[in-house]
Amino acid sequence: MNVDTMLSTNEVPPSTIQVMKRYLAVNAKHNPVLVSTILFSLLTSAVLSVMTQCLHAMIDDYGATGTIVNMQTAILLLSLALLIPSQYLQQFLGIKYGGLCDRTMRDKTFAIMSQIDMQTLDSQRMGDILSRANSDLGQINATLQNYYAVRLPQQIIGLAAFIVSLLISWQLTLFSLAIVPVIALLQMKISAPLTRFALQWQQAAGESLSIANNLMGGYEIAKAYNLGSNLRHRYDAAVDRAADSGMNANRATLLLSPLGRIMFFLPQIIICGFGVYLASIHHITSGGVMSVIILSVFIGNPIGDFSSVLTDFKTARGCASRVFELWDLPLEPTDGTERKPGGDAIIFDNVEFSYPDKPAVINGLSFSISRGEHIALVGGSGSGKSTAIKLLMALYRKNGGEISLFGNAVEAWSTDALREYISYVGQDTYLFAGSIWDNVAMGNRGASDENIQAAIDAALLNEMDVKREIGERGLRLSGGQRQRVAIARAMLKDAPLLLLDEPTSALDTQAEALVTEALRRLMQGRTTIIIAHRLSALRNIDRIVCMQDGRIAESGTHEQLMMLQGVYYRLYKSQEADL
Ligand SMILES: Nc1ncnc2c1ncn2[C@@H]1O[C@H](COP(=O)(O)OP(=O)(O)OP(=O)(O)O)[C@@H](O)[C@H]1O
C-alpha cells in the first residue's frame, strides 16, 4: 500500500488558519447566515456604543442641569428596545450557522466514506475511521459552533467597545486593559487549591470506579478467590479519599467565593479609582468614567475567554487534521461514463492483479462468458476466485490485461452504472436494520409493492412476517433466511449479470435446499457466475471454469472435467473422500 494513502496519526496537523480556511470553504453555501451573524453582532455593537454615549451624556447633563428627562434618555430607552432583538438574532444566527455547518460536514464525511477506494479501505482500521467520522468531527463542530455563536460576536462587540472607550478616554481605557492580566493572574493563584482538590477528587473517584469494575467484570474470579472483602477495603479507602478531597474542595469553594466576587468587581473598583483621579484633573467627565467602566466589561469578555478559545482551537485543530486525512483518502475512480450493454457478457483477457505489497493473485487469467450462460468458478482455497469477481465489480483495479463487461472495458464504465447491471449475493449477507420488506426494497428503489411482494414470494420468504424488525445486521433471522432476503433483493434489482460467491456455503442441508431453489429461480434468464465449493451441486451448470494460482487450469462440463482427471477431478475426489 502506498504510504500516502494510509491514515496516520503523527503527521504535523494543519495550522488553525488552514483549518478555518478549509472549514469556511466546505461550508461556503452557508455564508449568507455567517454574514448575517456578523452584521447583527455589528448592530449590537453599534447599539451598545450609542447606549454608553447616551449614558455618558445623561450623567454629565444631570450634573449640569439636574434633569434626566431629555433626548438622551429617549434614545437610550429606544436602543435598549433594539438591543434585545439584535442580540437574540445574532446568537440565533450563530447557532444556526454552526448547525448548518455540522450537517454539511457530516454529509460530506458520509459521502466520502461511501466512496473510499476498496484498496485503501483494506489498509485502514474501521474503528479509527468511525472515530474520525464521529468523535473528531463532533469535537470540531462543537468548538466552531460555540465560536460562531458566542465567541465571534463577543470579539466583535469587544472590539467596538474598545474603540468607543478609546474615544472617551484613551488613558482610562489603556489603564483598564493593563490591569486585566494582573487580575487574571491573581484569580489563577487564588483558585489553584480548588483545581488541586478537584483533581484529587477525580482521581479518587476514578479509582473507586475501577475497583467496582474489577469486581463486576471479574465477578467469578472475585468469588472464587474470595476477593470480595479485599476489594471492598480498597473501595472504601478510595471512597474516603474522594470524600475528603470533595470536602476540601467544597470548603475551599466556600472560602473562595466571596474572594471571587471581590475579584469580579476589583477591576471596576480600580478603574473607577483611576477614573475619579482623571476627572479631578479634568481629563474626563463623570459620565465618561461611568461609560468606560461599562465598556470595560464588554472589552474584558473576549480577553478573559482568550485562553479557553486557544485551548479549544488547539484540540479542534488536532481533530480537524484527522478528519481532513479521512476526507483526503483516495476515492473510487470517477473517470468512466454511463454505457449501454452490448457484446459478449464478460471477457477476461490475460488479466494480472496483486494486492498491495503481496505476490500476484491473478496471473494471466483469460476466459469469456456469453449472454445467458451459467458458469461455475471453482478451484482450491486462495486460487483467486473471489478476487476475479471483485475485479469485475470494479472494487479493485487490475494491474494488466483487459476485463470487459457487456462490450465495454470495466474502466470505461462509471462504477455506479456498472453496478446497476450486476446483482451480487455473497457468503454471509449483510442486512440493514429494518424489516425484510425494507431490505428487499433496497434492491430497486422505484419498485412497486406488487413487485416487492413477487420477489419475496419467489425467494420463498412468504411464510415469514416480512414487515417485522429483523434487528441489527438481520441477526434475528437464520442464515438461510438472510440468504433468501439477499436473493429476493437481487431478484427485485433484476440485473442481467448475477455474481454468487458461495451463497450456500454457510448453510445446513435443509436451509441449503430452500436457498438453492430460490437461486435456481433467480438465475433463470440471467448471465451467472457462481463460486462454489460443493462441486457435487454443479452437474447442471453450463460450464465449470477451474482456477489454479490465479489462472484457468481447465474448463468444461462436469463430465468433461472428470474425464480429464486433472485439477477438478482431484478436488472432486477429495470432497468425496471427506463425506
Ligand atoms: N483484501 C485482500 N488483501 C490482501 N490479500 C488478499 C485480500 N483478499 C484476498 N487476498 C489474498 O488473495 C488470495 C486469493 O484470495 P481469494 O479470496 O480471491 O481466493 P479464493 O479462491 O476466493 O479463496 P477461497 O475459496 O478460500 O475463498 C489469497 O491468498 C488471499 O489471502
UniProtKB/TrEMBL annotation:
Residues 38-315 form the ABC transmembrane type-1 domain. The chain crosses the membrane at residues 33-50, 62-84, 156-186, 259-278, 284-304. It is found in: Cell membrane. Keywords: ATP-binding, Membrane, Nucleotide-binding, Transmembrane, Transmembrane helix. It comes from the Bacteria. Gene3D superfamilies: ABC transporter type 1, transmembrane domain, P-loop containing nucleotide triphosphate hydrolases. Residues 346-574 form the ABC transporter domain. GO terms for molecular function: ATP binding. It is a multi-pass membrane protein. PANTHER family: ATP-BINDING CASSETTE SUB-FAMILY B MEMBER 10, MITOCHONDRIAL (PTHR43394:SF1), ATP-DEPENDENT PERMEASE MDL1, MITOCHONDRIAL (PTHR43394). This is ABC transporter ATP-binding protein.
